[in-house]
Design brief:
- By secondary structure, this protein is an alpha/beta fold.
- It folds into two domains: 399 residues, Alkaline Phosphatase, subunit A; 45 residues.
- It is built from twelve helices and 17 strands.
- The strands form five sheets. Strands 1, 4, 5, 6, 7, 8, 11, 12 and 15 form a nine-stranded mixed beta sheet that branches. Strands 2-3 form a two-stranded antiparallel ribbon.
- Strand 16 and strand 17 form a beta hairpin.
- It is globular, with a radius of gyration of 22 Å.
- The two termini are 25 Å apart.
- The N terminus is likely disordered.
């Protein structure tokens, strides 16, 4: 079903008719949810010297926390018996022959940008969210251990952390950010594996915006990045000079931890002297029609911030949309709480990137820990449980050939039926779009080299 998208693009076109603001030189990050060392303890990563292999300059990963159901999103099985068959009817899309969930009508109009992979799988322990998080954010299994795998420095680095090392900070911007929170089920101290730099070391951890812990709203500039009125620029300069003079009194006697702390303090002060650098986090200057198109919910606001961040030079932005662990109330939650924000935020992001001429240089990836079971469970109300044997993922932009479905699950969405795509290949495809092959290496704290992924890109997904 061909769809005229002019009416849906009009808010973006109208907003761009006014003189565009000069792109921020360094974009924005925030101290929300960070220790000082987490924010400022990074070293400059070495620049990548390998040729580009794709058209993407950056990537926005839309991560569906909890494990989204393939049956209620991109692989509906309308002819299957009850259980594996979607709870919702399919809808036609802008690409003849491709159907997705009827509760994703706006995204259906963007199907000509989408490469839907219906045969993604991994061998991680589906009992544990952390195993799936790690696999989808890194392309590797987590370091073996019992129970739910939480953050651990023995693990492989996330895609975001790899880019932090390969590209490093540019003009004060980190290479990678995550918002609006950590991926966790039980709160602070229970963050699931795969979100940090693992064995690369803390200097390459991506910047995580934890609005849920420290207050604030996605799309607003944190007050911690603004200089207090009672101090002023002159007062801040005097304090910097005082600190510098004190620290220079014993330059040779300071132990490494103290030297690192002093360096972090200096960089923290630099944040306060360059408040304009963080404006990419604030959407106040966006046209109200653009803000409305993304939506007032957290996911939509974070998608808009993500667009601003990649405009400002951030290489990798992870945006979370939680609540997909629907062991119970599956029907109500997917229908009322999960699919509507997904449809609005995801589709607005694609439209906005296209109108601004950024879609070809921005890869948009959609995934979660795993899929959901072919059958509904016996809970009351019922739900779907974890299922890693097959699930759906999506890529768009960044040189991807849109309007295609790659792979197929079997008749009940339980296993790949053809063209299986291991999650390591999915991650390798992300790297491929960003210009890095499986032969690319990073170095751990001891200087030992490691390949970034143990998979092969699915080159059929890309334009020739």
């Amino acid at each position: 079903m061909a769809v005229n998208t002019a009416s849906y693009l009009e808010p973006f076109r109208r907003a761009l008719r006014v003189p565009r603001r000069t792109f921020l030189e360094v974009g924005g990050i925030s101290a929300l949810g960070l220790t000082l060392s987490q924010l400022l303890g990074r070293q400059e990563g070495r620049a990548a010297d390998r040729p580009r292999r794709g058209t993407a300059r950056s990537c926005i990963m839309l991560y569906m926390l909890g494990g989204p159901p393939q049956q209620e999103t991109f692989d509906l099985k309308p002819d299957a018996p009850a259980g594996p068959r979607s709870l919702f009817p399919p809808t036609a899309t802008s690409v003849p022959g491709i159907q997705i969930c009827s509760l994703l009508p706006r995204l259906a109009r963007q199907a000509h940008h989408l490469a839907i992979i219906r045969s993604t799988f991994h061998g991680g322990n589906a009992l544990f969210h952390g195993a799936g998080v790690h696999y989808n954010l890194t392309g590797w299994p987590n370091f073996p251990r019992e129970g739910e795998p939480l953050l651990d420095r023995r693990d492989a680095p996330s895609i975001a952390a790899v880019l932090q090392q390969l590209r490093g900070e540019r003009h004060g911007l980190p290479a990678a950010m995550q918002l609006p929170m950590w991926i966790t089920q039980d709160g602070p101290g229970k963050e699931w594996a795969g979100q940090n730099a693992g064995f690369l070391g803390r200097n390459f951890d991506p910047l995580v915006m934890a609005y849920d812990r420290d207050g604030g709203t996605p799309g607003t500039l944190p007050s911690s990045f603004l200089l207090r009125d009672d101090i002023g620029a002159a007062g801040l300069g005097q304090r910097r000079e005082l600190l510098r003079s004190l620290e220079q009194q014993r330059p040779g006697d300071l132990p490494a931890p103290v030297r690192q702390w002093n360096s972090q303090k200096a960089r923290a002060l630099e944040v306060l002297t360059s408040a304009k650098a963080w404006r990419a986090l604030s959407i106040n200057d966006e046209d109200p029609r653009i803000r409305d198109r993304y939506g007032s919910h957290s996911f939509g606001r974070c998608c808009l911030v993500a667009r601003r961040l990649v405009e400002a030079g951030v290489s990798f932005v992870t945006v979370l949309h939680g609540g997909w662990d629907t062991h119970s109330h599956h029907l109500e939650h997917t229908r009322d709480l999960l699919l509507p924000p997904l449809d609005q935020g995801f589709s607005a992001l694609l439209e906005d990137l296209e109108v601004r001429g950024l879609l070809d240089e921005t890869l948009v990836a959609w995934t979660g820990e795993f899929g959901r079971t072919p059958s509904m469970n016996g809970n009351n109300p019922s739900g779907r449980d974890h299922w890693a044997r097959v699930y759906s993922t999506v890529l768009a932009g960044g040189g991807i050939r849109g309007g295609q479905v790659h792979g197929r699950s079997d008749g009940v969405a339980a296993d790949p039926a053809d063209n299986p795509v291991h999650v390591s290949d999915f991650v390798a495809s992300i790297y491929h779009a960003l210009g890095y092959g499986p032969d690319t290496q990073v170095s751990d704290l001891a200087g030992r080299p490691h390949f970034i992924v143990n998979g092969r890109p699915v080159t059929n997904l890309f334009r020739r």
